[in-house]
Design goal:
Elements: H1 2-27, E1 46-50, H2 57-72, E2 76-80, H3 86-98, E3 103-106, H4 111-123, E4 128-131, E5 142-146, H5 148-163, E6 167-172, H6 179-195, E7 199-204, H7 210-223, E8 227-232, H8 238-247, E9 261-266, H9 269-277, E10 282-285, H10 288-303, E11 311-314, E12 317-319
Parallel strand pairs: 1-2, 1-3, 3-4, 4-5, 5-11, 6-7, 6-8, 8-9, 9-10
Antiparallel strand pairs: 10-12
Pfam families: Peripla_BP_4 (PF13407)
Family: Belongs to the bacterial solute-binding protein 2 family.
InterPro entries: Peripla_BP_I, SBP_2_dom, TAT_signal
């Protein structure tokens, strides 16, 4: 009986050791049993989003797309309107970091000025995600951008073809402090110089603004009635161009004698309608919805501890009368069928 009791104790001891060892192998040496099921998640994480400015159709589409993607991903997204004002944006970015979010998302008007907000986020260990315009200093976790230089080059090719490779054309520029505008300008000017030596370009600093475009184009048409075409860094400024043409009796539909060729950039719903009506000839399309989805997916992946691309690029697509009704163009997403 004594022998049987001794065997039982030894057997129990061995089994206990085996069970304990198995537990350590499965659960880890120091992790409690409840931690085994813990998986990083994006749900409930807070993101502060400082937008470029909601006065532009393109930006509104981007913000709406980001809001939807964030909601579907379970993120708590708080958005502030940068209003196209770099100084306001800088203050907003600093304030956003003070709220101690889990991530900061910024679409800068002026990348240099936004550096202060980026550095503050870095100091507070807040991950930074950028759209369209990377800061020259500070660390950011991912960037999504449109190939602005390629967009400018596409604009040059399109205008040149429309005007017959000769004559005078206007370039309506975005903000001189904007990296996007500078890249579009560089792409446009470089292509014109290298391929179309018989085209004279007059660049106007219209600052993304339709009212500025109206006044400056009106002056340009008064000084030189023989202007053949216009490339605008965004579709928003084309509104001002149309008003200037109307006032000078130069608003002639496409295909009619005296038509002044207009190429914009963004592919906005209003631009697509103008292409259909014949008052605008083309738009170099971006895709703000795709850009917004890409950056939100990167933020979510970061929260989940998954890999994600640090640099994402959206290529331009030319929109003309031939493809203006394409349902995959973001400018047609809300169009009634």
């Amino acid at each position: 009986m004594k022998h049987l009791r001794s065997i039982s104790r030894r057997t129990i001891l061995k089994r206990s050791v085996a069970i304990a060892a198995a537990t350590l192998i499965v659960g880890g040496l120091s992790a409690p049993a409840g931690a085994i099921a813990a998986v990083p998640t994006a749900k409930g994480k807070s993101v502060q989003y400082v937008t470029f400015g909601l006065q532009f159709e393109y930006q509104v589409a981007m913000v709406d797309g980001i809001k939807k993607r964030a909601k579907d991903s379970g993120l708590n997204l708080e958005t502030v309107d940068g209003k196209g004002d770099p100084n306001l944006q800088m203050t907003q970015a600093l304030d956003a970091v003070s709220r101690k979010p889990d991530a900061l998302l910024v679409d800068p008007v002026d990348a240099k000025l936004i550096t202060a907000g980026v550095k503050k986020a870095n100091a507070n260990n807040v991950p930074v995600f950028m759209m369209e315009n990377a800061p020259p200093e500070g660390k950011y976790d991912a960037l999504v951008e449109f190939d602005n230089q390629a967009g400018g080059a596409m604009g040059a090719d399109t205008v040149a073809k429309l005007v017959g490779d000769k004559g005078t054309v206007l370039e309506l520029r975005g903000s001189v402090d904007s990296a996007q505008a500078q890249a579009r300008h560089q792409g446009f000017i470089d292509r014109m110089k290298s391929k179309y030596p018989n085209i004279k370009v007059k660049s106007l600093n219209t600052e993304w603004n339709a009212d500025n475009a109206y006044k400056m184009v009106l002056d340009a048409l008064t000084q030189d009635p023989d202007i053949k075409g216009i490339f605008s860094h965004n579709d928003e400024m084309v509104r001002g161009v149309i008003s200037a043409l109307r006032q000078t009796n130069r608003l002639v539909p496409a295909g009619k004698p005296g038509h002044l060729f207009i190429v914009g950039l963004d592919g906005t719903p209003l631009a697509l309608n103008r292409i259909r009506a014949g008052t605008q000839d083309a738009s170099v399309g971006q895709n703000p919805v795709a850009m917004g989805s890409d950056i939100v997916d990167a933020i979510v992946a970061g929260f989940q501890g998954k890999p994600y691309p640090k640099s994402m690029h959206i290529e331009p697509v030319l929109i003309t009368k031939a493809n203006v009704d394409d349902p995959t163009l973001w400018g047609n997403f809300e169009r009634k069928k």
